[in-house]
Specification:
With 217 residues, the chain is α+β, with helices and mostly antiparallel strands. Helix content is 22%, strand content 25%. Bound molecules: 2-oxoglutaric acid and fe (ii) ion. Pfam families: 2OG-FeII_Oxy_3.
């Protein structure tokens, strides 16, 4: 599928995402971002030391803890510090608005981070949101790996409930994007044989209390 100018996602891509979310709750899109944007993000992720990747933790806010038996990747939050990040956030904002317009999902905002899985790094089976217990509604992962081949492994495995075999295996191919309902699908990242870069993100509801907007992360 092709995208056009840098400022917005292709209408057909948006329609496809919304349709698949309605039918199955997930979708995989190839050639997701405009070339200019994905190339800039790839360069930033793979070569920019300013990003300052940190060991990822699990849980939120005060309950956050580093647990390398669950996940061993490193992350850098996307905060709009570079032109490529700003372009990416603009496109995801465009997608948020379009999904709300078509599916009435009430997505309030989007938080995202780069993730770097070094050789052998993994993220064990987990869900991104526990039913009724989180404001993450929709998960997205965009992959930034040029020339990925099957032998590199590092696939995302998606499961239905407690099932042992994945119903979907996603290779972390350059500019491929997977989007899925956060509460619905347990998933895991298999260890890769080489560096694996991605942007993981979550569209959230607003669980604010007393006028205080729910903090990100
Ligand atoms: O990188 C992936 O394929 C998935 C990452 C993931 O599950 C997460 O960050 O929650
Ligand atoms: Fe996840």
């Amino acid at each position: 599928m092709q995208t056009h100018e840098a400022g917005c996602l292709d209408e057909q891509v948006i329609a496809y995402i919304c349709e698949q979310l309605t039918i199955t709750g997930y979708c995989v899109v190839s050639d997701f971002l405009p070339e200019l944007v994905i190339n800039a993000l790839y360069l930033e992720a793979s070569s920019d030391v300013r990003l300052n990747f940190k060991q990822a933790s699990i849980g939120r806010e005060q309950l956050q803890q580093v647990n390398t038996s669950v996940r061993s990747d490193s992350i850098a939050w996307i905060n709009g510090q570079s032109e490529s990040q700003r372009l990416f956030l603009k496109l995801m904002e465009n997608l948020r608005i379009e999904i709300n317009r078509r599916l009435f999902m009430g997505l309030f905002d989007y938080e995202s981070h780069y993730a770097h899985y070094g050789q052998g790094d993994f993220y064990k089976r987990h869900v991104d949101a526990f039913k009724g217990n989180s404001n993450r509604l929709l998960s997205s992962v965009v992959y930034l790996n040029a020339d990925w081949v099957k032998a590199d492994e590092g696939e995302l495995l998606m499961f239905h409930d407690e099932q042992v075999s994945p119903f979907l295996i996603v290779e972390p191919i350059f500019n491929q994007c997977v989007i899925f309902l956060s509460e619905q699908f347990p998933h895991e990242v298999r260890a890769a044989k080489r560096d694996r870069y991605s942007i993981a993100g979550w569209f959230r509801t607003n669980n604010s209390i007393g006028g205080q907007i729910d903090p990100p992360r």
